[in-house]
Prior knowledge:
By secondary structure, the chain is an alpha/beta fold. The chain has 20 helices and 38 strands. Helix 2 (59-76) runs parallel beside helix 4 and helix 10 packs parallel to helix 11 (336-354).
Amino acid sequence: MSTWHLALIVVALLAGTSVHAATDCVQPAAVCAQPVPGAFALIEAGTPPPILADAKDYPGVLRAAHDLQSDLASVAGTRAALTTDKAAAGHMAIIVGTLGRSPRIDRIVRMQHLDVSGVRGRWEAYALQVVEHPEPGVARALLIVGADKRGTIFGIYELSRRIGVSPWTWWADVPVPHQATLYVAPGRFVDAPVVRYRGIFLNDEDPDLGGWMNAKFGGPNHRFYAHVFELILRLKGNTLWPAMWGNRAFADDDPQNAALADEYGVVIGTSHHEPMMRAHAEWGRYGHGPWDYAKNADVLRAFWRHGIERMDHHESLVTIGMRGDGDEPMTRGTAIGLLERIVADQRRIIASVTGKPAARTPQVWALYKEVQDYYDDGMRVPDDVTLLFSDDNWGNLRRVPALGKKRGGGYGIYYHFDYVGGPRNYKWVDSTQIERTWQQMRLASAYGANRLWIANVGDIKPLEFPISFFLDLAWNPKAMTAQRLAAYPSTWAAEQFGTKHAAEIGDLLTRYTQYNARRKPELLSPKTFSLTNFHEAGRIEAEWNALAARAKRVGDALPAAYHDAWYELVGYPILASANLNALYIAAARNREYAAQERASTNEQAALTHRLFAYDAELARVYEQDIAAGKWTHMMAQTHIGYTSWQQPVQNVIPATVTLAVPDKATLGVAIEGDARAWPGTAQAPRLPPLDPFGAKVREIDVFDRGSQPTRYTAEAAPSWLRVSPAAGLVGGEQKLRVEANWADVPEGSHVGTIKVRGSDGSVVRVKVPVSKPPRTNAMHGFIESNGYIAIEAAHYARAVAKPGLAWQTIPNLGRTLSGVTLLPDTAPAQTPGGDSPRLEYPLWLLAPGKVEVRVVLSPPLDFLHRGGLRFAVSIGDEPPQVVTTKANPEPGTADFAAWDRAVSTSVYVAVSYHRIAHDGAQTLKLWPIDPGMVFQRIEIVRDNLPQSYLGPPESQRL
Length: 958
């Protein structure tokens, strides 16, 4: 077996792994600071070896070689020579080149008898290998060889990443750490992508990216796009849908754009509604008559023909088909026959202009929104065309290919990290969990959608983290295992900030995206989180405050050189998101306090205004202070004060209330679980129950209603009930803790009283229900309390699978803890019952009777086109009850409201009803039927559950 084939065995284990993170120099071609036997000295005494290329190689390869020269200089402090001369340039060298294009590389392969079958002919494959005596005058060399232009470029940039140069060095101001010595381990590393076309779509780019590119480059010209092309390639992507908002047209705005993309090696396409390489803005500039093929076919054909003529020889992905003008749906009732004629005519234009069969020009038909309906209704395009399925604009796949159904053009996915449309734009900061992207895109890959992955990434910034993940995942979806997914945030953080703080920064990224994904920031309002139930608003605020404090500590601990990168990648998104949540919660408190006539109402109004101003200050720092003002306009996106799906023209502060506070001492009382206040409410205040298996503490607020401070006393009865502090000066507001001495509480249900007296003579008697169920040794599982049980899906007692199937917990996926799913995603439908796969949860119920089971899922769309995804629920010995999820993103359909609610809340809540035969021990079972279901939590409810956004905290488990 040749050494190249031995290397491929290693590659099978390492494919998709970011070897630049390795430090032990065990992996082939790993880069580290200490030499090992056979290692190649990449930098010694601050000096790198010369770089040898060939003048006949692709210009894009030579350009990337110059980038490597600059990257090595940034690391070593000394600039290496770069030569394309035939003569050797030194004792040691880095030699780069493309098979079949670089005579230098071909000569080395021939003279060294290197077996390159693992690289040659494989799309974008490359190899890194240390070789001996590759050519006269060179004793040892690090060989970077590519199967094609991009293969070589990816090999070059892989070495750059391994020596510590982040792909985000320019775009996120990530510093390059200095190294006086670096070594490359012996052995070969061979890699190649699984997804053929991997790219990003610059979209919805105003005001941020658009304003920035205009200020810095004078518009969307080749000087701007040079940075975009380099970023894509450094991230091992290869495709771009260029910016097209705000009357932008890639090829028309600057004739150098397309030529430069081809030189770099970036494949250019156009978005889902811009056919035949023409930007939508060009129709406004040059089109005549309606955008309607039935009425204006000749003009449209001429318009499209120019797009293909201008494409010339540049590597492109041609979008075919047609949507309505300006990314609108086609006219309702558009005939499939007309659409098929459009495609046929477009392909005739492609063949006529290129002089070769249309099938030899890569084409894409985007099944976006209503276009998918045409596909479902039977419209077809030729086999060589790539079918590009889409998510629902919110990261949930609408459809995947039928399992095992192959086509020449393959299948792809159009995915979103940014969106303009209903139910709400989301364009500000990252609000997508990579865990959800992993689950959905791995599913797509499993069903064969591996020809094109394209992500709407808005303005690029501040979506650096999910962009990296998406393109890393696209390189080899199978290699991104659940274990690698869990490590990805810290691995990515290490690439930007070094290893010392990587674990902490990685967790910060995980937490902030999880918190933002609960409900996208643009959808937040003062009404989102409950002030009265489950301490929800306070818990949300505390979580964000803790996260912001951690982010600040990390920022303070990092060397000064990393401060700009920290602010762009970690600091701003976390501090601004925390501030936004605090802003809405302060506005909510202001309104509630006003209704309760609290003297502190005005303080909450003032706090709301301060937080609103701080939001602007955080953006100002980003745009003016960071990187010496490099990112002007980049945080101009409005995100406060939405009243519809469309963004406000400017941020709008939430409405606040101010009170004329009387100049006297007046006591007010409010209780947990109720927004009202006393005195002044006719119905007596009644706290939610105390329960040894539920809430062990309840709270009462005493507060001033006047400008003068009030004194209070609080007395508890009976004796086993306690309240603290029992007396004091209010001074604004004071929380009183109410709890029971459970050893002295008799079994059964009771009602105690807390009597609150104010120095103004007021008296408020608060009723305190207390329940102490009988405790037995048999009691186990999740214990019912206050009429409900709440369970995180990951906290199952048993996960039953069967051969070929396995349960997978996806850490952090979801609003509260993690998601659980049955793999593989291609498994056939299961029949619930018997020994079928299931999750089991032990319950302890306090009474027989009817209960409602709410299963909280990641939004499940009917990606298999079966009429909805199904699972089943059973309690005890009852037969499994099948539940079908229904959510349709098409407006006007019966299940559109369910979809709208699911994407707004980031979960789908499926409900079933069950009758419990007896109290005590029961087992709830979740039975998956269709693949792709992700369970987040379960709530078993007897009566109405108090309103909240996230639901109650998890129940106690014995």
